[in-house]
Each structure stands twice: as C-alpha cells, then as structure tokens.
Design brief:
Elements: H1 3-6, H2 10-15, E1 26-33, E2 36-45, E3 50-57, H3 66-79, E4 85-90, H4 92-100, E5 104-109, E6 112-118
Parallel strand pairs: 3-4
Antiparallel strand pairs: 1-2, 2-3, 4-6, 5-6
Length: 119
C-alpha cells in the first residue's frame, strides 16, 4: 500500500502517542474492514538491515488477529529481500508477538525494548 492509502489511519496512530514516518524506503501493509483502514505495519529497507516500524491496529479492532496477520505478511515480504537482519523498537503491547516470532531483546530504554532477528 502507499502512504496515501493508509493515511486515514494516521490520526488514530497519533492519538495513540505513536509517531508515523514515511520515507522513500518505507513499505506499508494495511488491513481493511470494508473500505476502512483498521491496521498498519511498515518496514524500512536500510542498506544492511530491515527496520520494522509503525505497528498499529485501531483499538476497536484489536484481539481479532489483524496484527498477527499484518506481521506475517510483512515477514513474508522481508524474506524476499536479500537482508539477514531485522531490527525493531517494541512497546509493551507489541513485544510479545516479536519474541514469539524469534526476535531477541537487545536492550531497553524506559518502556521501549529493542529487538532484532537474524534471518
């Protein structure tokens, strides 16, 4: 998806005290309910690794497997790239799914846990 396509969810992301950035190397994945974007994840392609960024599902759609599916689709895409490392910063809400998907915690700062995974 393009940033323009996921842009209707941006106000929800910002209300959740998260930042959202769109760079030239950002790939977006979105989940729709009808015509409405209800969840997004993204990854940023760096020279030596992939950075997972902006994981968000609207509150009223959480607990329905949307985040897990978005996570899986992003993983499938990243597997097609010629990279061997994925990095991310996790909130307490996203950390469990990252650890369940073979990411390893590498550091912590306040409520953010830094994780990475070799592929």
């Amino acid at each position: 998806m393009t940033f323009h396509e996921i842009s209707p969810i941006v106000p929800y992301v910002l209300r959740g005290n998260m930042r959202i950035r769109n760079t030239e190397n950002t790939i977006w994945f979105g989940a729709k309910y009808g015509e409405e974007i209800v969840g997004i994840v993204s990854c940023v392609i760096k020279e030596t690794f992939v950075y997972y960024n902006t994981d968000f599902v609207r509150k009223e759609f959480r607990g329905k497997g949307i985040y897990k599916r978005l996570f899986e689709e992003r993983d499938k895409y990243v597997e097609t790239l010629n990279k061997n490392l994925i990095k991310a910063k996790c909130t307490p809400y996203s950390l469990r799914l990252y650890l369940k998907n073979d990411f390893v915690a590498t550091g912590k700062r306040k409520s953010i846990t830094y994780v990475e995974k070799r592929i």
